Model the fold of this input.
Amino acid sequence: MNGRGIFITGTDTGVGKTWVTTRLIQKLRASGIDAVGMKPVECGGQEDSLAIFKASGGDEAGLTLEMVNPFSLSEPLAPAAATISRPIDFPVIRAAFNDLADRHEFVIVEGAGGWLVPLDHERTMADLAVALALPVILVAANRLGVLNHSLLTVRAIRESGLVCRGLFLNQPDPTPDLSARTNHAILQKMLPEIAILGMDLDGLVDLSLE
Done:
């Protein structure tokens, strides 16, 4: 299983990517799989990266926060809009991923924001996912608007030449709106070739390991 992994993206920021990423890591590790995570680029601090670091076993797993998060930007902006002290270097990120993949069985990479968030004036998060060449799981918030956002993002993932392995309908809102009752069924009909999961973490584990 050495070198295997998955890329977690979202339809937008704030849809629960880190919640999904950390729980997937915990589930895999609890099942006996040496899984760790990384967030190559984080904006607005390192809160998400620290959560991934801890879920991955932290120091006991031989990790450092820099290994998990090679590029940390202090401003809560898209990288292209933030003040960057050093350019986001894909070879550096790829080397960090390869190092983790050499040391651990499974690496879960969480993107920042949505699929096409600009990293600079030429490259987007999609370009980083392509550089890592991993299958993709899309996280979306199960609320009004998710149908359009999900269909657009799945199409963009495919146009990038990557496999969208599945869509995880997260429930970040404590009080779901009316659309939450029907979104799953509609998405499954419109995307019959990929798995649509509704808060099924065990199913997400199986999907990640396909």
Observations:
- The chain is about 40% helix and 20% strand.
- Residues 34 and 105 are 5 Å apart (CA to CA).
- The mean pLDDT is 94.
